[in-house]
Amino acid sequence: NVVFHATDPVRDKALDRLASRLGGEPVEAPGSPLLAEPIRQVKAYFEGRRRDFELPLDWSLISGFNRQVLRELAAGVPFGSVVGYGDLAGRVGQPGAAQAVGVAMGSNPLPVVVPCHRVVESDGGIGGFGGGLETKRKLLALEGVLPEPLF
Q1: What does the alpha-carbon distance between residue 110 and residue 13 come to, in Å, rounded to a whole number?
Q2: Which tens digits make up the pLDDT trace of 90-99?
Q3: What pTM does this model have?
Q4: Which of 70, 114, 116, 119 is catalytic?
Q5: Residue 32, Cα to own-chain centre: how many angstroms?
């Protein structure tokens, strides 16, 4: 199950991507008891009261290199820190696979919980983000990596 809040265009794009990956239309279940804990933890994160997530993650939709990279990211890049695409490739034994790490970030079905926003370019740029660069900036600011926007 994936829970997120986004603008309508971002939401529609994400739901289309999920539908194509899962082979069916996503179902909204706001009152589901299965979602209560993930919702509580994500809400606490955005309120600044949680730094990491303690949720069982289903990795079955991800395989091979992408799974390796996303698992390393989830386990090895804590709140308030960042890692370069190339550095993350090296951590999974594939130095030189920075571009493939970028592809793995784009396939992440659990953004924020699996913190692909913490992966940045080696030259100091923030890199890309499926939810948009402004969203990535806000997430990095929330974690103290970037200054909070003035407006």
Answers
A1: 15
A2: 999 999 999 9
A3: 0.81
A4: 116
A5: 23
